[in-house]
Design a protein that fits this description.
heterodimer; A: 119 residues; 7-stranded mixed beta sheet; B: 113 residues; mainly beta; 4-stranded antiparallel beta sheet; globular
């Protein structure tokens, strides 16, 4: 059974760094793309980017390029989303999700990680 | 970026009645070489991640009730719930996966009248 289990909720101050994780199981992690989606409070879904753990090929939305870093460690079947300097506007729920293939939609989703940035 | 625009933003439907949600893309998501529309629909209930309902514009994901159907091609798409059930109260999103970034519509909230 495919499962994506995300790290727990975080409360951070502006300017702090953060790395959240998404641990995959039930399939060969290196062989499937895995992406990240943002959902700000009460708002819709925003596609942030996607990574292929097999070779770390990464594609970013222009809206998030340079604002976050997506990475993956195939030795421990885990994808990451990180910030070097958080802002209050980064407060949101972040989902990891996996498509069956690159040009297919997300059919497996993590439970979400709530990130709150507040002074 | 391909902009996805859904209409309406919300709708209230009586139990057992039909619900129709529209999605328009700013450019075609039909790939001519395979004649497939790179368009998906998701359902999201409060406190849950989205759930994939339909892909290739009209193919139901395994386990999705057949009261959910998708149609359309090119730039105009529709999600239809043929007979609304209480479990269908949710927000619905369309998404194109034709070109990165894979953009979503703004969502349509479906409520029970």
């Amino acid at each position: 059974e495919v499962q994506l289990v995300q790290s727990g909720a975080e409360v951070k101050k502006p300017g702090e760094s953060l790395k959240i994780s998404c641990k995959a199981s039930g399939y060969n992690f290196a062989d499937y793309w895995i992406g990240w989606v943002r959902q700000m409070p009460g708002k819709g879904l925003e596609w942030m980017g996607i990574i292929y753990p097999g070779d770390s090929d990464t594609r970013y939305s222009p809206s998030f390029q340079g604002q976050v870093t997506i990475s993956a460690d195939k030795s421990i079947n885990t994808a990451y989303l990180q910030w070097s300097s958080l802002q209050a506007s980064d407060t949101a729920m972040y989902f990891c999700a996996r498509p069956q293939e690159y040009n297919l939609p997300f059919d497996y989703w993590g439970q979400g990680t709530l990130v709150t940035v507040s002074s | 970026d391909i902009v996805m625009t859904q209409s309406p933003d919300s709708l209230a439907v009586s139990l057992g009645e039909r619900a129709t949600i529209n999605c328009k893309s700013s450019r075609s998501v039909l790939y001519s070489s395979n004649n497939k529309n790179y368009l998906a629909w998701y359902q999201q209930k409060p406190g849950q991640p989205p759930k994939l309902l339909i892909y290739w514009a009209s193919t139901r994901e395994s386990g999705v009730p057949d009261r959910f159907s998708g149609s359309g091609s090119g730039t105009d798409f529709t999600l239809t719930i043929s007979s609304l059930q209480a479990a269908d109260v949710a927000v619905y999103y369309c998404q194109q996966y034709y070109a990165t970034p894979w953009t979503f519509g703004q969502g349509t909230k479906v409520e029970m009248k």
